[in-house]
Amino acid sequence: MTNYIIRRLAQAIPQLFLISVILFALMQAFGDPIATLGGRIPPRPEDRERLRRQLGLDQPVYKQYITWLIGNDWTKIDMDGDGVPETPGKRRGVLRGDWGNSLVTRQPVLEMIGNRLPNTLLLMLTAEFVIILSSIFIGLYSALRPYSWIDNLLTGLSFVGYSMPVFWLALMLMYIFAVNFRRWGLPYLPTVGMFDPAVGKTPGELIKHMILPVATLAIISTAGYSRFVRSSVLEVLGQDYVRTARAKGLRAMKVVFRHALPNAALPFITIIGLDIPILLAGAVVTERIFAWPGMGRLFIDHTERSDFPMLMGILMLISMAVVIFQIITDVVYSIVDPRIRLH
Amino acid sequence: MPDSTALNTLQDTASVPSTKPLSPMELAVRRFRKHRMAMFGLGLLLLLVLYVSVGGLLSQGYCTPLDQNVRGEDWANCNDTSLKLQPPSGGHIFGTDVIGRDIFARTVYGGQISLLIGVSAAIVEVLLGALIGALAAYYGGWVDSLLMRFTEAMLNIPSLFLLIIGARFFGRGLPSFNFFGRELTGGVVVIIVIIGATSWMYLARIVRANVLSLRERDYVSAARALGASDRRIIFTHLLPNTTAPLIVSATLGVANAILAEAYVSFLGLGVQGATATWGNMLDGAYQYLETAPWLWFFPGTLILLTVLGINFVGDGLRDALDPYSERHV
Questions:
Q1: Residue B311 to residue A277, Cβ atoms within 8 A
Q2: Could you tell me if residue B55 is inside a domain?
Q3: pTM of the entire predicted model
Q4: Residues A211, A188: contact at Cβ < 8 Å?
Q5: Number of A–B residue contacts, CB under 8 Å
Q6: Candidates B44, B149, B151, B160, partner chain A, best to mutate (most A CBs within 10 A)
Q7: What is the pLDDT of residues A42-62, one digit of tens each?
Q8: Which of A143, A231, B166, B176 is the most exposed place for a label (fewest CB within 10 A)?
């Protein structure tokens, strides 16, 4: 097991390296970050040149990449533009924990992501919790009554669910539960942000603000997952050991919860594990609509300003999450299903 | 003699004009037609195609800024700012947008573009995915490991981020061009290429897995023994035998591409300019959540219906073309 994990981690390193190269290459034609830096006052051409040198943007791409990856603190850089390097470099590179500074705010990238990450995780993990519970419940319910009218209804609804564009569902939910509920004089939900400034940062406010974004994320994912649970439960219910369990006179509930569900849950673990990081990314649109101050919005805001150290930071973190979750999923799977041998 | 009678009966049954055995294609069509949801989806899609084509005939009116009656796409682009943000009424059945254009006409012409983007992006996706998957599996060795490492790397970057970066990467500034009598901005091509180029990875893996098993079949060895070139083996012997998963993925790819276009546009990075798409009609519409819900409701619902129809058809195709495949939705 330990060997397996070590080997998988060793395989992950070249993969992440390749991802970073692809992303860095994409960042290059991203437009000139300097052009959008000055805000309303366009910088003078000589300031522009100086800034470019300061940020290392005058260097060839491969040198910029090396600086990003392992730093430049062993060399001197040419800051005043006379062709003679004189200022010692300060960057230590991603591999030594220096993810660079945002071009927009000049703050360390990791710090800025760290400020937003908890908000995104709060939203995502709550949504994931709701998704797992509701899809197991719905999937199990339809699997136990296959092809009944309620099963057919749920099938139809699930198709509608995962055909829905995220923003459409979000706007509909906002329109119904925020706009119209207020119009009808019912208790209504807030639409944007995490807290109401008038009330302050209370847990109650936070929960109220989370309901709509969590519902948006949960409804769409539940639609797909509940179908998945349904088909794996149906498959398990046809197995010999379930028939045996029934034949020996076990109560129906016990057959389902003791024999069928744990076995049906196995493939579900894989899907969830592989999708968690994707969900992290899926928050981009949701966070934008609900003005949720998370990582997705950070990404969008800094895309508009070509802030490539920031974008590299966010994308590499998410890609690392994807790779690590793949390994975790495989390991967990082998623990819960002893038939699987890790090689 | 009992033996001869048995033989006779056999011959009799054989000589009875029996129904011709059905070809695999006919069987698939038959299975598809029995699939109620797929037929419903197909009907829905036909209605939508009718909507975006015949709807153009209903798109006409008096354009005040031009001071004349206009029809077709001119009506969709006629902006009468004095009529901005009108709720649905007799003159504008879906209302008007922020600069006073008729939303119904824009959903018709935007729908043409959205469907065009969906279908073309799916074609790009299939071409790239099939080619990369087939090359990796057929040649094996370092070609395989290089292509598959690249595929895995691309898969590990969430696709929406790739899309956003791609949309920024290729930027704008492509010239407009004429397509079936419609003037389209270059942004349409950019978005098609980006969506196709960021979605081929799953398909490549499916094709690779299929070709890996097909490659060892006797008929491929026979073709090679007859001196067929690699290109001929790949394109006439291997790829045609993986059409079932290709068709299913391509169908679902159209739905994903339409959604992807909508997401990118929603984030303000989609097709710019006068060319309407269902996606860019939604750009900024959420600011009018309360005051003008018709701005986002109609294009959003059309996207939902299209994606729904395609998903139903895709599900039916999967069942029809590959009855042994595990059904997981």
A1: no
A2: yes
A3: 0.85
A4: no
A5: 134
A6: B160
A7: 667 777 777 777 777 778 888
A8: B176
